[in-house]
Amino acid sequence: MSTLVEIRNVSKTYERGKQKVEVLHHIDLNIAQGDFLALMGPSGSGKTTLLNLIGGLDSPTQGQISVGGTRIDNLNQGALAKWRASNVGFIFQFYNLLPMLSAQKNVELPLLLTKLGAAQRKKNAAIALQLVGLAERAGHKPTELSGGQQQRVAIARAIVSDPTLLVCDEPTGDLDRQSAEDVLGLLQTLNRQHGKTIVMVTHDPKAAEYATHTLHLDKGALVEAAAHA
Amino acid sequence: MKYLHLIWAALFRRKTRTILTLVSIIAAFLLFGLLDAVRVSFAEAGQSANGAERLQTGSKLSFIQTLPMALQARMAAIDGVKDVAFVNWFGGAYQDPHNQVFTFAVSENYLDVYPEVSVDPGQRKAYSDDLNGILAGEVLVKKYGWKIGDKIPLQSQIFPNKEGSKNWSFTLRGIMKSKDDKAFQSQMIVLHWKNFDETTPYNRGQVGWYVSRVKDVNDADRVAKAIDALSANSDHETKTQTEQAATRNWIKQLADIGLIVTSIMGAVFFTLILLTGNTMMQAVRERTSELAVLKTIGFSNGSVLGMVLAESVMLLLLGGLIGLALVSIINASLPAMSGGMITNAAVGWKSWGLGIVLALAIGIVIGALPASRAMRLNIVDALAGR
């Protein structure tokens, strides 16, 4: 399998007041196309920071990051925003849907950045909702949906523009076991049947079992790698 | 346009707050529209084409100082003068001192200098034949339900009759009609100057002011100077000006309406900026994570800035347009509601234009700070709730 994400000697330092905190130290990592990678580690280990760097939400203090052959560490904010719009889908712990929009309109959001017309946007959003099993809830607002359903709408939003890479930050962290398994099953399907490369941050070892690989981070460094069946 | 539903949804995310803010904007623009209409009404006073060819001659010292009647013939002899009429203030109240009715004692040719005012020829003759007769404006007649031949009691604030009483009684002989309900003559009463002069001991051949009509509007300045020259260095020096200028000066003596309107609106809009600006700041603060999500998905900084600004401008435009539309409705129904006694200028395209520009400008001012904060939002910090 070809490499989708290449991380070379990446460090990230945050400035908190006068203090400088190095959150990631000299990380080297390759993520293959079609991989489902779980990133685990204790709080403050740098998992979310690494995920943000891979998703182009943040830039490294040092090192290089390439995704699909594009160096994203030296893109400016505008170029990064454009790159994210067409290459990455984001799934958050707390779903982060816009409460005033229906599920359908939430899913359509990334398509507003494309040249698609209103009818095509609606059609694509309907397909994405169907894929996550929520076609009949398209007109419902987030407050009218359960946590599991909201997360599935968020997944539909993440995949609607057909990105290569999905980055998920604790996608099951706010869900009960059954809903969590549904969501993880859905992610696995997207990975296995639709070829999406997934990077998922999680605290939950059971969630990590759905991934093909697990990487552990501790104090900003990669400490071990494990492959699953 | 693609983002319109998104902006609209964000605007009404908290319906109660948005509606209350909208009400305050509507109230501000309602006030703006009403006050602007008052300003326009005052500015338009005496601005008719006929008003431009009429000259008013009054005492140079004060408008309460009277002039000798002998001036009429000398003014009429000036080259370029078509007619010269004269007027005295009577100041009547009908039934109750609070019901003030503009009443003037006028010369017999008064209506000749106001060709825009028409009276039925039969009624005009009846008025001419009856020294105690009066003509009343159409609006007044409708308001009080008067009929031709009715006895109309009027109380003068200043002038007593022969018996020493300020209560006078007249007979309505005719109705003055004007194409424009707002014309002063539709809301006033005229009586014979001769009757007034002979009845009250306070006036002996004196005239309040003269109204003359010139043959050529372009000649008005020369005629005015010639009229004033007649009384130069006398004890009754005059000041002659066009009716438009005289009305403007009279209004200026009352108050600087433009300044008052501007000051009030300045205070209202300043308060609106503070209140609505605060509301917008709060609304954007509450949506920090939602804005961060938009940026995460790929919305550019410029798009986020534009959407927050558009939200603010849309709120102001919505309130402004509703407010101005309400003013249009109120102004159109004011004459009917007040029996024609209160008229206000319609909201013209200039007022609409000014209102829309103000709404846009205030919207931009109010939205600028929250929009720039939204634009500069750091995605990572915002998603982490920092």
Give an overview of the whole structure.
The complex is a heterodimer of chains A (229) and B (386). Chain A has 7 helices and 10 strands. With 229 residues, chain A is of the alpha/beta class. Chain A has a single domain, classed as 3-Layer(aba) Sandwich (Rossmann fold). The radius of gyration of chain A is 17 Å and the shape is globular. The two termini of chain A are 16 Å apart. The mean pLDDT of chain A is 91. In chain B, helix 1 crosses helix 12, helix 2 runs antiparallel to helix 10 and helix 2 crosses helix 12. By secondary structure, chain B is α+β, with helices and mostly antiparallel strands. In chain B, the strands form 2 sheets. Chain B has a 6-stranded mixed beta barrel with strand order 4-5-10-7-9-8. Chain B has a two-stranded antiparallel ribbon with strand order 2-11. Classes of the chains: A alpha/beta (229), B alpha+beta (386). Chains A and B meet through helix 2 of A and helix 1, helix 11 and helix 14 of B.
